[in-house]
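Reviewer comment 2.1 asked that we show a complete input and output for one of the modelled complexes. We chose the manganese (II) ion case, as it is the one discussed in the main text.
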Amino acid sequence: MKRPVIGITSLQREEEGVGWLPFNYPAAIEKAGGTPLVIPALQDRESIRGLFQVLQGLLLSGGGDPDPFIFQEEPLPGQGQIEPRRDWLELILVRGALERGLPLLGICRGMQVMNLAAGGSLYQDLGSQREGALKHMQEAPRWYPTHGIRLSPGSRLASLLAVESCRVNSFHHQAVKKTAPGLIPCAWARDGVIEGIESPGDSLALGVQWHPEAMFTGDPTMKRLFKGFIGACRGGSP
Ligand code: MN
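Response of the prediction step:
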C-alpha cells in the first residue's frame, strides 16, 4: 500500500543552533504506515511552501510555548520558552495545510499552534490563569496516562479513537482558550480544559493536547489515532 510522506516539525534550541526531535514521533508515523520526513526550521516562505509539493500529511510536534504576541497578548510571568523561528514556520505551514486540505495532526504545542494559526487564543499558564485546573504537567513516565478525557460524541476524534472517553498523558501548562473560527473542541479533561480540537470539514485537521506518540507502543487507542491519520493522508476516508 502507498506510504504517504508525512512532514514532522522539529523542536528548536535556538541559542545553541540545534534542531531536534524525539524518536517516537517518526517511529509512530512509520509504524502506522507513513514515511516520516523531519522538517527543519525553514525561514524562507517560498521554501516552506515548496514542502506542499512533497507532503501528503503534516504532523506538528510538541515543544515550547508559542509567542503570546501571536494572539495579541503580552507575556505573563508563567509563560515559558519561545521558539520564534519555529512559530514563523509553523504558522505558514498550518495556514497552507488548512487552505489545501492537507491532513494535519497537531500534538500538544502543535494543537495550540493550529488554533493560533486559525485565529484562536491560549491560556499562557493554566496554573495561574484558570482556577481549579487539574495537574496537567504530570510527574510520571511519558507513556503513562494520568488524567481522563471525555470525547464529543460523533466527532472525528471519537470515531478515530473508537472510544467515548479514555485516559491520556499530560505535559502542558498552556491550553486552548478561545477556539479558532473553523475549528471545534472535541475533547475535554474533567476540569473543562480543552484536550482536542478538529475541523468539521472534509479534510482531517485534528489537534490533541496529549502525547499519543509516547503512548503508541502499548495503547491500541493511540495506534488507531495514528493509523486513522495515515489513512486520511493516503486519501482514504479519514
Ligand atoms: Mn492535560
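Residues 84-100 form the longest helix (17 residues). We note this here for comparison with the apo prediction described in Section 3.2.
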